Amino acid sequence: MDAHPAQLLDDVVHQRVRLGILTALSTEPRLAFTVLRDLLGQPDSGLSRHLRVLEDARLVDLDKVIEERKPRTWISITEAGRQALRQELAALRAMMDAIENGGADLRAFVALLGDEPGERDQERAELVLSETPAGFAMSRESAVDRNYRLVSMPAAAWDRHGDQALTFRSHGLLGGHFRSFASAAANAHVMLVELGNEEGPLAILRALAPSTLRIEGLDPYRAFLTDRDGSGGKLGVCWMAAGRYLACVSMTGDEEVIRELLPQFAAGQRAKLTR
Fold first, then answer.
1. Pairing, β 245-253 against β 234-242
2. Which of 261, 248, 263, 249 lies closest to 136, judged by CA?
3. CB 50 within 8 A of CB 17
4. Which tens digits make up the pLDDT trace of 59-85?
């Protein structure tokens, strides 16, 4: 019997944070320590520990410099790191092929676990706000897949959709659901994603900037009220965590409307997560 592809996984590379580090570096010439830290939702000490493991294995290089009179650390992937990442991805693809080609017995086993994609999508959809304040109507909804396509929610921690997607995938993104609501006064969007463990949502929240908008009864959460980029009006955003779930409510409109209605949407979404 051939060896199972799981035997090809490298323990140094396969660990969630270290795999995220190598994946992020594979598409950038180098990344600053602080950028990588925020991208992966890690504390300084945690990221440093994982970087030491990768550096000892000669999979990454660290360059410590002084820029504008401040110390800064740049991280880049080595050729050995690229090769290790390619081998890891090949092993994961082989495992996926084994699952897809495993026959009816394996598919029946997965069905017994209740983890068929359609069923999981429905369970996540039921955790996303659907009851809305008067005057709003649902305008759009969709499932969120494991690659985090089609949607992107605002937060200062991510300048690009790809950065947000990489952050979620590095924490074992399993999927999610998204709904949009519209009224004459404001537009609102609600998204929920399910990550691979309960540490992920909290780590991502900790990586976000401190709240600039106080909303009672949501802890743990981060909420912000900012100007919209060049389009007038305001943008209100609230991120919250519960178990393996990370949810975000965003709203655009006048500041007075957002201050009144965003807490209602956020409280409704929190109730969905804690029911």
1. antiparallel
2. 261
3. yes
4. 999 999 988 888 999 999 999 999 999
